[in-house]
């Protein structure tokens, strides 16, 4: 298993004037000390890219917080009237409230709106647990705010440029398909074939067929080819494995990867805090 953002966000992200020069994968010096503050004095980041939280995963995290407390501090910035706005750690904040905690550990940072957006996006996108549409919208906003190209954004968030491009293409889908993707009624694998069709009419026709006939990603690929899907719709990805990765991610509530090596391979489950590690272990023991 690999550990991503558990290293801390430190001095966060430089302002636009610094041209976003520091990559989010670097380890900035963390000169802040965690302190306990009243949980009711924390307000949610208005720029948070995540819009949905999986209930089952939140229940598991809540149980972990009840047993072990909040191990990884939240990051907040000071607001008026003694309030603090949350920058990173909304899952932990929600779980803490559900667990009945009165205070939580935080690290206080002074940041502007661009930095809030950057940190909230990067924390989530590197965890890869945003739904594809929230990710795409957040990527687009980050590109616009910092005047970044796809290549530059890809470097800053540690993703291949092709991955960023494919994510942004999801915003070209009709609204009904985007909503289905957000609600997990279809997978990103389905959507990548839908977005490759050359008209909204074809996209909606295949979308309805996916829902009505419960088409797999592989079946959707075949249907897209019959309907004249573009080369972009046939990205060289093992979608059978992508479906399995999705099932693993749903079960563990964490990023999951299948790495092929000959006839065998590895299953990699990522975690980003001790709370998440405890959640994963608890599910394995069931």
TrEMBL record:
GO biological process: chromosome segregation; positive regulation of sporulation resulting in formation of a cellular spore
Residue segments, region Disordered: 1-30
UniProt keyword annotations, A-Z: Chromosome partition, DNA-binding
GO molecular function: DNA binding
Alphabetical list of Pfam families matching this protein: HTH_ParB, ParB_N
UniProt feature, compositional bias: Polar residues: 14-25
InterPro entries: Chromosome_partition/occlusion (IPR050336), Cro/C1-type_HTH (IPR001387), HTH_ParB/Spo0J (IPR041468), ParB/RepB/Spo0J (IPR004437), ParB/Sulfiredoxin_sf (IPR036086), ParB_N (IPR003115)
Key word Disulfide bond present: no
Domain HTH cro/C1-type stretches: 140-166
GO terms under cellular component: chromosome
This protein's record includes keyword DNA-binding: yes
Family statement: Belongs to the ParB family.
NCBIfam families given in the database record: parB_part
Entry protein name: ParB-like protein nuclease domain family protein
Organism, scientific name: Candidatus Falkowbacteria bacterium GW2011_GWE1_38_31
């Amino acid at each position: 298993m690999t550990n991503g953002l558990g290293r801390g966000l430190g001095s966060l992200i430089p302002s636009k004037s610094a041209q976003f020069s520091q990559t989010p994968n670097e380890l900035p010096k963390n000169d802040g000390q965690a302190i306990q503050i009243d949980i009711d004095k924390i307000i949610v980041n208005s720029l948070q890219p995540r819009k949905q939280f999986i209930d089952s995963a939140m229940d598991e995290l809540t149980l972990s917080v009840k047993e072990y407390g909040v191990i990884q501090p939240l990051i907040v910035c000071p607001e008026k009237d003694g309030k603090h706005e949350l920058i990173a750690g909304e899952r932990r904040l929600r779980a803490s409230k559900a667990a009945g905690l009165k205070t939580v550990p935080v690290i206080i940072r002074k940041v502007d709106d661009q930095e809030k957006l950057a940190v909230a996006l990067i924390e989530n996108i590197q965890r890869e647990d945003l739904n594809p549409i929230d990710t795409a919208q957040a990527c687009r906003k980050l590109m616009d705010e910092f005047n970044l190209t796809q290549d530059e954004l890809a470097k800053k968030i540690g993703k291949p440029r092709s991955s960023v491009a494919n994510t942004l293409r999801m915003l070209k889908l009709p609204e009904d398909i985007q909503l289905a993707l957000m609600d997990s009624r279809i997978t990103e694998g389905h959507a990548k074939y839908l977005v490759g069709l050359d008209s909204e009419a074809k996209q909606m026709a295949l979308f309805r067929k996916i829902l009505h006939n419960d088409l797999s990603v592989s079946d959707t690929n075949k249907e897209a080819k019959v309907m004249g899907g573009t080369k972009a719709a046939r990205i060289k990805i093992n979608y059978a494995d992508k479906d399995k990765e999705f099932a693993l991610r749903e079960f563990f509530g964490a990023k999951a990867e299948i790495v092929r090596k000959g006839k065998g391979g590895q299953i990699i489950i990522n975690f980003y805090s001790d709370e998440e590690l405890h959640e994963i272990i608890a599910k394995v023991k069931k």
